[in-house]
From TrEMBL, chain A:
<keyword id="KW-0902">Two-component regulatory system</keyword>
<dbReference type="InterPro" id="IPR029016">
    <property type="entry name" value="GAF-like_dom_sf"/>
</dbReference>
<dbReference type="InterPro" id="IPR001932">
    <property type="entry name" value="PPM-type_phosphatase-like_dom"/>
</dbReference>
<dbReference type="InterPro" id="IPR003661">
    <property type="entry name" value="HisK_dim/P_dom"/>
</dbReference>
<keyword id="KW-0597">Phosphoprotein</keyword>
<feature type="domain" description="Response regulatory">
    <location>
        <begin position="634"/>
        <end position="750"/>
    </location>
</feature>
<keyword id="KW-0418">Kinase</keyword>
<dbReference type="GO" id="GO:0005524">
    <property type="term" value="F:ATP binding"/>
</dbReference>
<keyword id="KW-0808">Transferase</keyword>
UniProtKB/TrEMBL annotation, chain B:
<dbReference type="InterPro" id="IPR036513">
    <property type="entry name" value="STAS_dom_sf"/>
</dbReference>
<dbReference type="Pfam" id="PF13466">
    <property type="entry name" value="STAS_2"/>
</dbReference>
<feature type="domain" description="STAS">
    <location>
        <begin position="14"/>
        <end position="96"/>
    </location>
</feature>
<dbReference type="InterPro" id="IPR058548">
    <property type="entry name" value="MlaB-like_STAS"/>
</dbReference>
<protein>
    <submittedName>
        <fullName>Anti-anti-sigma factor</fullName>
    </submittedName>
</protein>
<dbReference type="InterPro" id="IPR002645">
    <property type="entry name" value="STAS_dom"/>
</dbReference>
<feature type="region of interest" description="Disordered">
    <location>
        <begin position="98"/>
        <end position="118"/>
    </location>
</feature>
Amino acid sequence: MAGREDDEESRWPGAASGGVFAGNDEIHQDLAAVDWTATPLGPPQAWEQSLRTAVSILLSSRFPMWMAWGPELTFFCNTAYRRDTLGRKYPWALGRPASEVWAEVWEDIGPRVTGVLGTGKATWDEALLLFLERSGYSEETYHTFSYSALRDDAGTVVGMLCVVSEDTDRVIGERRMATLRDLGSDVSVARSEERMLAFAARQLAHNERDLPFTLTYLFDEDGGARLAAATGMAPGHPAAPALLAADDPDAVWPVHEPAASRSAVVVLDREPFTGLPAGAWPQPPAQALVVPLLQQGSDPYGFLVAGLNRYRRPDEATRGFVELVAAHLAAGVGSARSYRVQQRRAEELAELDRAKTAFFSNVSHEFRTPLALIMGPAEELQARLAGAEPQVREELEVIRRNGMRLGKLVNTLLDFSRIEAGRMQAGYERADLAALTAELASVFRSAVEAAGLSFDVDCPPLPQPVLLDRGMWEKVVLNLLSNALKFTFDGGIRLTVQDGPGEAVVTVADTGVGVPEQEMPRLFERFHRVANVRARSNEGSGIGLALVKELVALHGGTIGAASREGEGTTFTVRLPYGNGHLPPDAAVGADGTPAPPSGAEPYVQEALRWLPDPAVPAEVPGQGGGTSGGAPVDVVVADDNADMREYLTRLLRGAGHRVRAVGDGKAALEAVHAHAPDLVVADVMMPRLDGLQLVATLRAAPRTAGVPVLLVSARAGQEASVEGLDAGADDYLVKPFSAAELLARVRANVELARLRTQHARWRRALTDSMQEAFFVCDAQGGIVEANAAFADVLGFGPEDLPAGPDQPWWPDAAADPEGHRLVAEAFAGPEERSGAGHILPLRHRDGRPLSVSASLARVQDPETGGQMVVGTLRDVTAEQYAIRRESAVAALSVRLSRSASTAESLDGALKEMGALWQARHALAVVFPDGGRPVLTATGGATDWSALTAEHRAALTALRDGPPLTPSGDGHGGVGVGLAHPRGPMVLWLDLGEQRPFTDQDVNLLSLLAGHLVQGLSRAHQIDQQRETALALQRAILGPAELPEGFAVRYEPAARPLEVGGDWYDTVALSDGRIGIVVGDCVGRGLQAAAVMGQLRSACRALLLQDPRPDRVLLALDRFAANIPGAMCTTVFCGVLDPGSGRVAYSSAGHPPGVLVDPDGGVRLLDQGRSTPLAVRAVDSRPWAQEEVPPHATLLLYTDGLVERRRRPLTEGIDRAGAAVREARHIGVEDLAARVMDRMAPPGGYDDDVALLLYRHPAPLSVRFPAEAAQLAPVRRALRSWLNQCALPPQTVQNVLVAAGEACANAVEHGHRDTPGDTIRLRAEAQQGSMRLTVSDTGRWRPPRPEANPNRGRGIALMRALMQNVTVTSGPDGTTVAMNTGIPR
Amino acid sequence: MTTPLSLICSNRPDGAVVLAVTGEVDMSNCAELAAAADQALGRGPGSLVVDLSAVGYLDSAGLKELLTRADRIEIVASGVLGPVLTVSGLTELTAVHGLEPPGRLDGDLPTQPYEPPS
């Protein structure tokens, strides 16, 4: 193989260079191709060894390097350098002087190079900013590089090696990261929008390189935008208006784009963008990016305008950076706004709290006076009546006890409001905490032991006293103990006092019900009561523990709680010794002697009343016989307050009733179940099961549903009683009440209940015997009563139904608003006692829709006076279905019969079926043989790829399944497969969640799908016929491609035909001339079109055979004579020489052509006229000649354009001439549209119209290979065309030179790599201007006069000789465009 | 194929060498012009008159050859070449005979000054 390698080497271009460039890379070949003899280095074979070595090191390195050698510092580089840095300068740079290669940065690097060459010492530069011209613009780049000296064989420094790495991406990336990091560096600014924006602006202003200027606009409520922050931009700059209107199309920034959450690029090349700040750069930005400040799930907050660094290409990374900045601003604005809202809410809450505290304080004070006036006389009476009968003493005791309890409650509230207001004055004194606490415990012992609980008190003496307010400490201990007693039913309570580190520790532990874990955090919250726990009493205000906590805190102590549900709760209070924790001005009294606790009695008395009172027997049957009015009845009394329980018992027994008294709702339920009473009297607030729950439970069970319940509650007010009655209570009594009131209500309720049960039994038997569903409902629709048939029809019995409106058997208000409205109106509507028939859409319990015939009547409830509705229902679903099926089939058939295409048929069918089932969307997918599935839909997705994968799978499964067999997906979607003429099709209805699709629906869908198949098939046949007709029509109308300079319009009179009797034609003749024909057959529609097609073909053939207009028409005369209907056809036939503008023409009775000169003069081509075709036999026809001058326009047309009833034809021709004259400077294509528009009668054209325009000279379009030798012929063609345009010689010369330079540029540069590619030159005269474009497919090189003086001069020439010279370079090539005015 | 160009060198009675150019000059044949001019310059120490009166087209490739020799030649040209010779600066580097007075041309020149990109 070694031998082979030698052979290979001999073929390398490098071989000729003495092997210096031996290698197979492109760079070796390009280096070898350099004409080294033209450089000071001479031929490579003669290079000294040191240069060869340096070059070989350079070329073999994969690290980017370049080197310079010799007197001119001749440039070499390797592949890596070429790729990373050299860009478009490759391979031009090879072998050039280094100062020429890097001319644009030589100012920066030149001194470094000189330094290396002079001293031999290496340089090192890190991330040096250099503006390179390697990518077609001045580019901001950063390079880290080192220059080191290269020595020749004699050791003299003769060159330098540069090892370089480009850091541009890193430097710019780090800079942007720093900005983003700084933006997020201070979270505290997020509290105010202004501070946040100002902070962000300071950070953005630091990065003047990426963001020369920024503007932050925020949207106002009216959609306008207001400037909220700016960087880099001086205030009041016209490019930064303070306000931007929402609907101003001329606004400085495009507000509507960010408002629609879109970004936009604004090119800053016009007013008011002059004098923009340049940031850190010499030149201001050329583009700005407008990015919305997006808000999740809502419209953007505003937008950011970022001026972009013109020295970087605005790439994805730039856009991404600006979007991240915008995202940060949006997040900042969002969090500032939400902070502001929260702040306001917190202030409102604090204000509410203050108002409430003031209220409590006032009310509590007001209570104390009447209380004192109750308690004083009561105690006095007790003393005076010590010897009175027991019942009097007992009742006085009740008064005193409850007065005391009320006093305690008021005092607690007052304490609390004092603490809240900061007015609680504590009187501290040194106290023996252990002794004091034990004393309090002993007072409570009797109550604890009466409850059957153990009470363990362990209070050893403490080493030092604690500073205490005795009154407060009493409240702490008593509250904790009564709390423990209230929630403990078994086990006991333990109270300990211990010495801790610097503090005394007091614990109260119970074995009670415990506190649920989720309630623990709120245990000490005011008014918070743990719900649904078993307690000895439901009494309480919910402020005991909150007060304890505040009191402990006033002592500088803490309180904590630990609890396990069902095991017990332990409260731990810690009080510090000494006085360091107390306020300095706190009064400290002398050591007091332990006195008996003063405020303990109310606590103990209250606790004792929670316990069962053995003194009162729970039931004393048979006591008392004769009552005042009515038979004695059995009553169950349920109340957790022993005093109230005893009071009620005493009253009822006194009236002769039999009473069973219980302490809570559960016990009451048990009592009722044991023996059904005639009446239940129950408190609303009770532990275990409250009064409302008790009523609900009784009502739910048939056996107890009829038991009358009288609720008693302290909660006054309308809502409370409504709540009670709603729950099913028969009556409601508010505390306080009089004894007589209670007894009267008891009697009334018992009697009513007896009557009711008797009537109810009779009525039930009657209604149940009815075959139709019968019901009674209240005004809101809640069913009060219903018979057995009601449950048969709807699936619901009255016990399954809720009270109030929105019954489950009504249509769902959200899914079927129309049905819901219908039913609601029917129930609200019936007149008093008048039956009314309705068909209502109702729902069965299993979800299936029902059609029900309902007769409803409004009646007044004789007992309550409330409005009720009674009604009967009959299920007519099956009958309704039959009607619906008939009408659906009929509606679909009508739709299909009216459709003129398959698309229209399908669209109509989808709408019909979607409406029938009230589907959210209906869609159809056609699976053409092997093609992409095609979607038609009434909403939702419009493309197969936009559907979810599951949906696509479901549709495909239906396609592959049996046809006309509907099937649902179980989530409210149902589909059916059927045959479409283009392939299998699936029709799909999206019915929405929880909409049942019944068997009847399945049958109907299948039936309709069958009809649809037939309809589609019929429409498909129509489609095919129409397509065939259209293809034929287009074939006979006119040429497929028009020559340059022409424009045509065609308007057939008979729709939907696309052709009529008129025609136009252009024929390219072999000598470069162009035949032009415009003709008009008699009549219109298909028949005229058939004649026209034949004449057109004939005329075309004749023109090709003998291009003389008169002879063509003569021959056409003979041809037309043999075609029925061709007689009297008018034809204008002309032959145009596009070079000279001369047109020879002959007219067979056709209206004259119109010629409009550039100066606006109008001439008619009205010579060479003779009769229409085949009117009489002629031997010859006349012809004439006219010259179309440069920039003149020729108009040919048929009479449909100009002929109007009762108007002379000449008037129409004049108008047509005027229409062309008015717009004679615009392009012919636009002119044709303008003329058609101008000439159209008010109701549109009612005759066929053909129109043909020609502007002389036609644009010049030349394509030629990119070779220098082509320049002269192209120039000749251009010169000849320019002469046609009648331009002054100097203008011709200027255009020629400018075009020549552009072409030479394209040849020399655009195609340096691929010579022979096509260059395109186009010249066009319009609107008083000559436009010239030269396009190539090569890469454009920006002019660099210092590198190539010749080319730079070329560009300079173009700019000097022409106007608006633009060079547009893209991946597909480069286009040079320029203009010059045409002197008139 | 290059663009046809005729180059005839002669001596004027006053001893000056005249190079009469006929045809069009573009990048395909500017080297011929250069060679002829150099040859003519080699004929004597005096100045060379390049007569462009019969040149109908001259682009930047031809201008380059004239500019590089501007200090040794004089030019005769017809008015049609005026803008090209003026814009290129040749009229400032050497004598150009036969043009219209330059004032007439000023009005035709575009107002936008040319600036090479930085």
